[in-house]
Amino acid sequence: MTTRFEIIVGSMLGATEYVADAIEEKLAAIGYQSAIHLTPNLNDLEHDAIWLVCTSTHGAGDLPDNIQAFAEQLPDAELDQQPYLVIGLGDSSYDTFCEGGKQMHQLLHQAGGQPLADPHYVDVLAHPIPEEEALSWFEHSLQQPKVRARLSGPGVLV
User: Fold this and answer.
1) 14, 40, 88, 151: which has the highest count of C-beta atoms within 10 A?
2) Flavodoxin-like domain spans which residues (predicted)?
3) Residue partners of 146: CB distance under 8 A and separation at least 6
């Protein structure tokens, strides 16, 4: 059981940073601790926390520059059922829609991580303020049995 979230951000233009900030604010309001990692490194993350990856897609389906080194660490990692959630941001007019989020989910899962919910892919064409959609999904995810089973502490999950 945990009271902590590690928010892992992949961003080129800043939208996923806004998502991370909104989620961090919500977590603080309900009594949970979190840390945002803008240049994530596997060695800096607490393994007793729930990891939340928020990433966009750049170029032709690539991960943002700031999360690439973290992604490269994952194939050699042994995550031993590390609980995680993924929020991907993308533009559905591209055939690589949310490829960054899909890649991160695949890498985490292949390294032995345990997804607590299906990844959530936010289409910025349908949701021009993506943090609102992402926060709504995140609040809903906090109510799911797999997530609730991992949480402890004073948080009121609404």
Assistant:
1) 88
2) 5-142
3) 83, 116, 117
CA distance 42 to 56: 19
Q: Which of 2-6, 44-48, 103-107 is predicted with the least confidence, judged by mean pLDDT?
A: 2-6
Q: Is 26 exposed, middle or buried (0-12, 13-18, 19+ CB in 10 A)?
A: middle
Inter-residue contact 81 to 45 (CB < 8 Å): no
Query: What residue numbers bound the domain in which 83 lies?
Result: 4-148
| pTM reported for the whole predicted model | 0.94
Contact of 98 with 89, CB cutoff 8 Å: yes
Answer yes or no: is 158 within a domain: no
- Please measure the distance between the N-terminal and C-terminal CA atoms of the chain and give it in whole angstroms: 19
Tell me, what amino acid is at 124? V
**Residue 67, in any domain of the structure:** yes
Phi-psi region of 6 (alpha: psi -120 to 50; beta: other; left: phi over 0): beta
